[in-house]
Input
Amino acid sequence: MNNDKAPALALANLWVAFTAFLAAALLGLYQVVERSGLFPAIESPAWYFAAVSTHGVLMGFVLTTFMVMGFGYYTATTSLAQPLWNRSLAWLSFWLALVGVLLAAYALLTGQASVLYTFYPPLRAHPIFYIGAVLLIVGSWIWCLEMIMMMITWKRSRPGQPVPLVMFGNVANALMWLWASAGVAAEVLFQLLPWSLGIIDTVDVGLARTLFAWTLHAIVYFWLFPAYIALYTLLPRAAGGRLFSDPMGRVSFIMLMVISVPIGFHHLYMDPFQETGFKLMHMFGTFMVAIPSLLTGFTIIASLEISGRLQGGTGLFGWIGALPWREPLVTAAGLGLLLLAGGGFGGIINASYAMNTLVHNTAWVPGHFHLIFGGTVALIYFGIAYHLWPKLTGRSLRSPGLVLTQLWLWAIGMIVTAVPWHWLGLLGQPRRISSTPYDTPLVAAWQPFETLMVFGALLLSLSAILLFYNLVTSQASGKSNPDTTLAYAEPVHAVLSLPRPLNGFVIWNWILLFWMIAAYGYPIVQFFLLDTYGAFPWNV
Ligand code: HAS
Ligand code: CU1
Output
């Protein structure tokens, strides 16, 4: 179904995603080297914080949003076999988001928005940065609308038929993102932007952090969604087998959509302006949100086992060796799942209210999200790109050997970088620091880990360059690939009909509405009932 130019739109989105990724990865190398203290000549807090803010924004907002959009547009048109709901609007969303990124990049690269990717006040950026963020968010909302409308029109013409799983996942993500982004949108529009424009003098930091927490947990699942969708709908076929269970995929997507949003206070356990009972409530939700990942781990490994056994693997673990590891998506997913086990374990520690005191605001936290986001999610994004590239460009991958090398380099590089980061956290190193020029035994104990991280970052940079090289050379001079049909995995048991809640989202939106009122109602209203104090800006 390539006649509506969805491939061009998907490619445009994916190219922005991976260009941002390459720039961000190289900045990451600079940051690790700077922080290591091995090269005092390059130490500069101003440059460091400008770099780390740009790195975080490019990885967390640009790579991800454009990846989600490109993946969504292409899988929606191919799985539903229908054109985009509104092609001009979809292109508008691309351009809006891109202009937003360029505006934000200007502010970031000129050192006027060194506020980190969480942009917590009282750090204050140039208004251009916030305007850029708003445009990016509005662009992503149009994508959400496209996904929802495509599913609705498809369902209207086929009453009662199961929505293809890939599309069910896209729409779950779109709905979740509409709910989730309301928090940060309110924060930027009503607090940060007027504050940076000088319309208001002070900003209520507690309210701002609460609104950001509304978005912060769910956004990480917005990043994760395309990766999980690919595990369910593309991987089993790439591995030569079948999906173990289609309904399990739906249940996981629904749980991710509903549970991800009302649990953001696990980022605020150590903050004073929210009450313990609400934090505890969000903690229970946080433990519940691990369940869809556990379901996914089980279903995907079961699907891989089916593939391995179909290909002659025997015994308890023989099927693992029998998997087609030369398929980029299989290798990316296998390595990604391995890192997910480590990153998820760290997440459970973070989530435990009492244990969070040990790791909060330490280097452990970037260790956690590099393993799970920089590791699992990024690897599966690469796997998706390699899987889709021959379909999108009509050309085969140019050097399959280099593709596999790139994936392994990334996984090893991320382990070498992120595991020491966890140790540094346990040794008390704070996060968000540019250097540690203190001559104490504590700081001396950090040095071996810092040095190790430099090696990890070198491997990661090499891998990032190789990814770019692989994508460019394949598109420019790969062998012609006439088979551009994207085929999706078949489940072991065909899905002929489904109960309504597994084929639509109405009831889930209602549940989410009530849960959000319970989780965020009073915690937000209190700021308008109590005496609160605004903070003056700390300009960067
Ligand atoms: Fe997190 C902080 C809790 C998942 C990203 N997280 C962050 C931040 C980011 C982030 C960016 O509760 C920093 C925010 C900031 O800047 O302040 N996180 C969790 C929990 C989970 C979790 C409970 N996080 C993610 C994912 C992310 C992400 C996914 C990005 C995509 N996180 C927290 C908490 C904090 C936090 C606190 C605040 C910390 C603080 O104090 O500031 C869970 O949902 C994770 C569930 C996953 C599992 C893993 C299951 C394992 C599977 C693999 C099996 C594979 C095997 C190998 C056995 C429980 C499914 C098989 C191999 C083969 C080859 C076949
Ligand atoms: Cu979170």
